[in-house]
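Q: Convert this sequence to structure tokens.
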Amino acid sequence: QVQLVESGGGLVQPGDSLRLSCAVSGITLDDYGLAWFRQAPGKEREFVAAISMNGVSTYEADSVKGRFTISRNNGRSTLYLQIHNLKPEDTAVYYCALDRYHAFWRTAPTSGSLYTHWGQGTQVTVST
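A:
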């Protein structure tokens, strides 16, 4: 059974940094693309970033470019999202997702429908 478990969220102040982690079990991570999405209160879920099987290709939403960095450690079966200069508009539940059908993508993998497995989410709240 494939499981994804996010951690690292919390209450932070504007300008702070945070690193989210997603531990994956029940599957060998090497062959699959991974991504982060987020959902703010009252809004639809949105794509944040994605990374190919070997980490060579990454994709970031325009709204987070320059502040968010996605990475992975296949040996540790873990996906990461490093976030710098947090803003109140980054407040959301952050979800990791796995695409069991693709190791890499020919176009930016921004659609949630691509992903076959999801974590339960971790809350990030940015507030003074």
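The chain has no helices and eleven strands.
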